[in-house]
Design a protein that fits this description.
7-stranded mixed β-sheet; FAD/NAD(P)-binding domain; 27 strands; 26% strand; globular; 8-stranded mixed β-sheet; alpha+beta; Glutaredoxin; binds flavin-adenine dinucleotide; 499 residues
Length: 499
Amino acid sequence: MKTVSDVDVAVVGAGPVGNALSILLAQLGHTVILLERYETPYGLPRAVHFDHEVGRILQACGIGHELRAISEPADLYEWRNGEGTTLLRFGQGGNGPSGWPASSMFNQPALEELLEQRAGSVGVETRRGFEVTTLAQHDDNVELRSAGGELVAAKFVVGCDGANSTVRTLSATPVTDLGFFYDWLIVDVILHEQRTFNPINLQICDPTRPTTAVSGGPGRRRWEFMRLPHESLDELNDVARAWELLAPWGVHAENAELERHAVYTFNARVADRWRDRRVFLAGDAAHLMPPFAGQGMCAGLRDAANLAWKLDHCLRGFAGTTLLESYQAERLPSARAAIDFSIELGKVICVPDPTEAAERDALMAVGVTDEPARAPGLPDLTSGFIHPSSPHAGRQILQGSIGGELVDEVVGNGWRLVAIGDDGEEVGATERTWFESLGGCVITLANPDEDFARWFAEHDTAYALQRPDFYLYGTATSGAQATALLADLCRDLMKGSTT
Ligand SMILES: Cc1cc2nc3c(=O)[nH]c(=O)nc-3n(C[C@H](O)[C@H](O)[C@H](O)COP(=O)(O)OP(=O)(O)OC[C@H]3O[C@@H](n4cnc5c(N)ncnc54)[C@H](O)[C@@H]3O)c2cc1C
């Protein structure tokens, strides 16, 4: 029996969330072991969409350049009825505030490959073939055992082990089912020749066959077909049936390869408790949603970004463990908003009844405008580890650039105090030294780019104190106020939480 006793964090599950969390922790110098039951990566596509904030999180994982090469921006997501009338248009061209396209399309296995390579290069020990079967919590560590009897001990364990999470079951965590179930046939296609699809992403709200037709990343397309009430799963989950459903789209065996077809039951669930002492849940283990908003993996990567710096600070003695209580408090409202939005979208599309569909169409078609609507944003933080009274605390700061390069590429990850103008020097020396020991960085933008200049003007502030996950701890209008903000941060970290 092999024992690894001095690991800081054991992450269970080498999906996108487990890999990203492991990378963020290993980049900060922690020993991380990533345990995965399967010998080889899951090779079939699932997620196809990520948003601008998630682009920034993945950039923080050190794969920004490679990610741009495997993804393509999507400026429009149009919903039409069976007759082709537009019911809804979402979209945004150009970059979102995080310095990435508002929406990007990609292939999940390609992303996981990038993440796994990056994990190896930053020192994460990935152990494939390790299926966690037991978990025992002690005062100062957690022990995990595999089916084969191997033992791993870690100061913290994070279950990123997907929808049927073993870690969740072993920590006796109840799950609330939000009662949304529909079966859909997912068909992934590699086109032999490049074709332009306009709009790039489309929902056909046709009661005779609700259908999704979206990009699956460069060179790939994804179709999703809802199972109709009279159809059996076996009738739908059939390769000949998949080709038959693709035929009206001009896709057939001569011009495309069927990468896979599979029926998924879309549902919506949330774990009631995301932390049990030294054990955490993240990603699908903590929350599950239908894919209509393209947010399941995105929510999991936001969990990883939130949890990584908090575990880091506790492991390095910069914060009390009560900081960890803010993890669920901060992440649940955002994940829940993504779930609720996905369910609302699902209710619009998953309508097999023609009368109900006609009523829906009449209501929706009148609201369509030429200018695509912006998808509703996720909520800012209103509690958790943010300054209790500072303006803009809990909002996100954009990613501008310095010298034409995105700022995170220039100054790296971690806490950041961004000052505009020449005032950066006014921050108190003691507070600044402490902040730098935390890994924080003070930058002064004497000649801010257009984005930063606009952001600071709109927010009527001169200093922005940004957490490692891009949320604002607070803002200040003078060097003296910024110094006080740093002092409050130090106090709050040692206290562990502001609420
Ligand atoms: C059809 C479809 C379309 C989707 N579209 C989108 C989209 O466009 N955008 C988006 O953001 N999301 C989308 N999603 C959701 C997204 O795919 C998931 O949210 C994401 O894969 C979850 O990542 P994860 O790392 O939490 O879990 P997973 O990717 O499920 O990884 C969990 C890992 O844990 C391992 N594991 C499980 N149990 C154990 C154990 N006991 N021991 C060791 N290892 C274990 C598993 O083998 C697996 O590798 C979609 C999902 C589907 C099905």
